[in-house]
Amino acid sequence: MRLRRNRAGSRRDGGVTVSMVQFILSGVAALVVVAVGGATVLDRIGRAEAIRGAREVTRLVGGGVMERYLTPGLVNGRESAMASLDRMVRKDVLLDPVVRVKIWNEHGQILYSDEPRLIGEVYDLDQDKREAFTSGDGYAEVSTLDGKENRFEHNYGKLLEVYLPVRSTSGQPLLIETYQRYSSVAASGRRTWTAFAPVLLSALVLLELIQVPLARSLTARLHDRQLEREALLKRAIEASEVERRRIAADLHDGVVQQLAGLSYKLAAASTRAATNGSRELGAALNDAAADTRQSIRQLRSLLVEIHPPNIHSVGLHAALSGLVAPLAARGVTVDLDTDVDDLAPDVEVMLFRAAQEGLRNVVQHAGASSVSVKVTMDADRVVLEVSDDGAGFSAAVRERRSAEGHMGLRLIGDLAAARGGRVDVESEPGRGTRLRLVAPLPARPA
After folding, report:
1. Strand partners, 105
2. Are 195 and 56 in contact (CB under 8 A)?
3. Global pTM value
C-alpha cells in the first residue's frame, strides 16, 4: 500500500507541476501582451497629448504673442512691419521644438516666413488649410512635406504641422502655420508611458504572484479529485469482478450441474425407450438431451463472458480465442492475432474487457461476415484493435445508444483513461466499425 501511495503522490505532484508550469507560462504571456498593449495605448495617449500641447503652443503664440504684429502693414508687405515681426519670431517663437513659422492669407499667399525665400509666394491652399479658414478651428497633423512650399523643411526630418486661424488687427482672416519637431512629440509619448509603466508592470506582476498559490491550490484539488475518481472507478471494477465471479460460481455449481445431470438422464431414458420398442419416444428424449447439452454450452459461453478464466494463467490468446469461438460457430470469419507477451494482469483484463465489448457489439448490431482482433505492443504501449465489415453506424446512433443506457464503450473508455490511455471508435454506415484501445505500459524495472 505504501508503494501505491508513493506512486499516486508522484503522479499528483507531476500533474500539479505540469499544470503550474502551463499556468505560469500562460500568465507570463498574458502579462507581456497586456504590458505591450498598455505601453502602446499609453504611448498613443502621450503622443495625442503632445499634439494637443503643440496646438496650444501655436494658439498661445498666435493669440498672445504674434497677434499685435499682424498689422495692415504686414498684410500689405511693408518691410518695417515684417522686420518687427521677424525679430519677435526669432527671439520668442523659434524655440525648440518650433523650427518654422508661416503666415498665410486666404488667397494662398505667404505673407511672412522665417525663411525669407518663401515670402510673397502664392500656392493653392490644400484641403486642411481651407477647412481651417472656414471652420476657425486649429488643426495639427504630421506633415508629408511633399508640397512646393515645404521644400526648405526637408532637412528637419519628420515634422508636426499646426494651423491656427487668426485675424489681423484690421480684421482680415489669416492663418498661422508652425512646424514643430515630431521627435518632441514621440519623446512626450515615451515619457508618458514610461511614467506609468512601472506602476502597470508592478500591478501585473503582483496579480500574477497572487494567482500562482491560488492556482496551485486549485490544481492540486483537481488532481486529488481525479485520483479519487480513478480510485472509485477501480473499486467499482473490482466490485464488479467479485460480483461476476459469485454469479458465475452459482451458475456453474447450480444450474449448469443440474442441466448436465438432466442431459445424462435424458440420454439414458432415450436408450431404454429405444430398447423397449418406443422409437418415437426414444428419438424425442434424444433430441431433448441434445437440446440440453446445447443449453449447457451456451451457459458456459455466458459464464466466460460474465467472468473469464484466469487470463494470466491461461494466456490472453487463449482467453480471446474463447471470446471469438461463438462467432466462428456462426460462420463468421475470425482473424485473431495477439503478438504480445508478459503483460501485467490488470492490462490483460482491460484488453479482454475491451475485446469482449467490441465483439458483443459485432454480434448484436453489425451483421458482419468477418472480424479481426489484433493485439500489438512496443516498448511503451499496447494496442488492441477489433474491426469488422458489418453495417457500421453513425455518430448520432452511438449517442442514442449511450442515452438509452448502453454504457459499455464509455466504461471501457473510462477504464483506459484511468491508465492514461484512450479508446477510439471509427465507424460509418455500411463501412464497418473499428474499435481501437491504446494504453501505456508500466515502466519495466531496470
Report:
1. 174
2. no
3. 0.40
